[in-house]
Design brief:
Radius of gyration: 17 Å
Helix content: over 70%
Distance between the termini: 36 Å
Strand content: under 5%
Number of helices: 5
Structural class: mainly alpha
Number of strands: 0
Oligomer: single chain
Order of helices and strands: HHHHH
Number of domains: 2
Largest sheet: none
Length: 113
């Protein structure tokens, strides 16, 4: 849960507005725009998480890293599940590659090995 702490200025509604604005920016390619928006949201969430956990700046930096590592691992597991669901529903490796912005072969090698 993101809350305003008086110093960071991060709230869940604020983060959602920033994410929405970045996604709406038509001047940036969709993949880049989406990735940048999600990265910004994750940085703000990690900062809020770390600030709530500790006041020491070194500890906050390490706590942010810990949360982002957990999110990265969780996203990897969820991505594997999504690929299995897509393949189980009849999606081709070309379709999986397209969704991942990768070639059919690299998608196949990444998720079957």
């Amino acid at each position: 849960m993101l809350e305003h702490d008086g110093q960071q200025g991060v709230t869940a509604p604020h983060a959602a507005r920033v994410l929405g604005a970045a996604l709406a920016d038509q001047s940036v390619p969709v993949d880049d725009r989406d990735g940048a928006a999600v990265a910004q949201f994750l940085r703000m969430a990690a900062d809020a998480w770390a600030t709530a956990k500790t006041e020491e700046s070194t500890d906050r930096a390490l706590e942010r890293m810990r949360l982002l590592r957990l999110l990265e691992r969780g996203a990897g597991v969820a991505l594997h599940d999504a690929v299995e669901d897509a393949r189980g529903s009849g999606a081709s490796w070309a379709g999986v590659g397209w969704a991942l912005n990768a070639s059919r072969q690299s998608a196949y090698e990444r998720f079957t090995g």
